[in-house]
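Protein 1 of 2
SEQ + STRUCT:
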Amino acid sequence: MTMDEKLGIVEEIKKSGDVPMYDSVERRTSDRAELEGEIQDGHLSAPSSKGSASSSSVASTYFENKIPIPKTDSYKFSFRKLWAFTGPGWLMSIAYLDPGNIESDLQSGAKAQFKLLWVLLGATILGLLLQRLAARLGVVSGMHLAEVCNRQYPKIPRVILWVMVEIAIIGSDMQEVIGTAIAIYLLSNGVIKLWAGVLITIVDTFTFLLLDKYGLRKLEVFFGFLILIMAVSFGYEYIVVAPDQVQVLKGMFYPNCEGCGTKQILQGVGIVGAIIMPHNIYLHSALVKSRDIDRSKRENVREANMYYFIEAGVALFVSFLINVFVTSVFAEGFYGKTAQDIYQGCIAHDNPHSHVFNTSSNTSYPEVDIYRGGVFLGCTFGPAAMYIWAVGILAAGQSSTMTGTYAGQFAMEGFLNLKWKRWQRVLLTRSIAILPTVLLAAFEGIEQLTGMNDFLNVLMSLQLPFALIPILTFTSSDAVMGEFKNGRPMQVFTALLALLVICINLFFVSSYISELPNHWAIYLAIALGIFIYMGFVGYLVWFCLVILGLKQLLNVQCCPKFLQPTSYELDSERATTRLNFDLNAEDEE
């Protein structure tokens, strides 16, 4: 079938009423030109959007050399094919092991012992289901989530979404800077000051950027090596502390929190915010494009979805075990101990950081963070435990740095079609992250620096709806996903998850408001922020319902015309999506 014949079929479908006619001759002309540009290698490919990043711009970040998928005689499971698809899921799983997650894990064990392990398990499973949606979007549509948002949302919401994603990325980057600086501080026994460690992160980031020059596979292997370092480091601590295995399993599979108060409930809520990272959904939808998948065949798309899900499941299982190691170590070793108990151990091991537990009220139960956690391990189990802990934190910070860089560049290229070089992107993000961090490190202290991780975990949780609602919207859209769109159960599940996250956010905000100074200006600013936040979340929900078929909502005069979906956003891809496989099947015949 020739290109003109295929275009003719598309035009006939539009005239039949299945896809509405466009508003103007100019738009029809431009869309015809767009379709002509999209017919490549004998089939209709994923539409290139108005303003979305071109393939060449995306290639400049992660896709310079796509990994070929070996061909087999059948579509039965093949370890050889699984190996070809292995990589994106492991890079994605690093966000589940960043310094913010490690701090959340140790605080969970220190505050609630093993009682919140079931929350960690549930959050990881929820994360896997969301990552599955992200991977399916990238495989089926050929576009990552930022590109789809660029194509589907009007300009103003699109820019706001980009800002929210950038806030999440910068917040994550701040956690990585904090974790790396503390790790360097511990490894140097305090010789390298915190502010100097923060500045060192600028240099090491650019060093790691050179790694991807050696090829995609080598880069993925290096990330795997960093995960291995974390597994060995935190696994060593787990073996040394030797927690009660029965209590570990009970906490994991018995959803209960007997005797928990507000502090433990807040910690459980914080686990969800730390595990499910908003920018990670955007990242994973882009990483899956690094494999050379023939999207013109249903079987190949189904196969890619299957292998990516298996790979993501294995990667997140490993990340879950590492998180369990950290939680269990502090549940067994730290929970219920007073500052005096720990300080005596510090004296016995001549720990240079023992002063952090030498407080005026030695009978109190001390707070713990990634710095105090390392000191505690050194005081209780010897210097080796502290240094190995610091190595694990260093690996967590360094691995998260690179994935955050990729997420930022994908977001910038996808949402805004801005094509920056990697070093420029890193310099911008890292500079914004370092400024407040180095000021805290220089003029406040390590307690304030590590305490910032708690605030950043809350910030991540606040950004979650801006990834959850778009991924639900477009993976449930017939126009974007065709026959691979979400079924009704998945739509309901994701919608309930988004609602749960929004409720968690409100709970977080209310708990923090109660701790703020009682001043009208503060409450006014918070009220204004909540109004804007909920208004934009409401807009995304309204847009989602319209895309899912409730076109009657377009008649409700609650939204300015320039924020409403046009016929192009609603339906223009449907013909190309629906014909994508059928036309190729006809060509093969």
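Protein 2 of 2
SEQ + STRUCT:
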Amino acid sequence: MKCLILAFTILAVVYAAPTNEQREAVKKAHEHCQSQEATRIDSDVFDKLRRGEKVHNTQLSKHTLCMNVQAGLQTESGDINVDKLRKAITEATSDPNLVNTIVEKCGKRVAGETAEETAVALFKCLHSQGPPHGHGHH
């Protein structure tokens, strides 16, 4: 399985070199989110993301939230699980300063944001901090 995104999550949330266990967790979360009509995304959307094209798809923010919830990075109401975020980042890098920097930049929910907006903001923030993250698409 090729690491692409977490840019989507993590899964974005943040694995430069995911373990098999992490890849399986991301794959399982993705399959769950794709099995739900409310969070399903067409494969052409992922193809556009891989090519770096901008995508305007209302399902994308719902899918991102679903992935983050499945990964434990967010609650369904949109709150960020900072402990889980820190753990995920720590598994991706051994640099404690980098971990703290990313958590400080990405681990805060902006007041007034919807759960989906927070999910997308978290994804974008994590993506801007380093190498592609594993979303599970190949």
